[in-house]
What we know:
77% helix; single chain; mainly alpha
Amino acid sequence: MSENVNLFLFTKLADVQPLTRTQMTRTYLQAGNWRVLYAFKTFGIKQLDYIIQKSRRELQTKPTAKALWSIVTMLGIIMLCGAGDDELKDFSM
Length: 93
């Protein structure tokens, strides 16, 4: 892959999850063993920010009904990704 492709993929992934230490706060850098919990928190915040930005873009560019359906679909997929094994089994039965 070329350097431009790598840069493009890095920036797209950085929109969704924190990748570098510069995207983290000073608290994370000084947290020691608590970094794992802090990383989960920042990952969740980035996901929420991504959903909000994408929803705003879709509401501005698409008709309202299609935009709302896209938002509901995206939220449903994210909820299913965060669901545990038992919840998915209960949902499918």
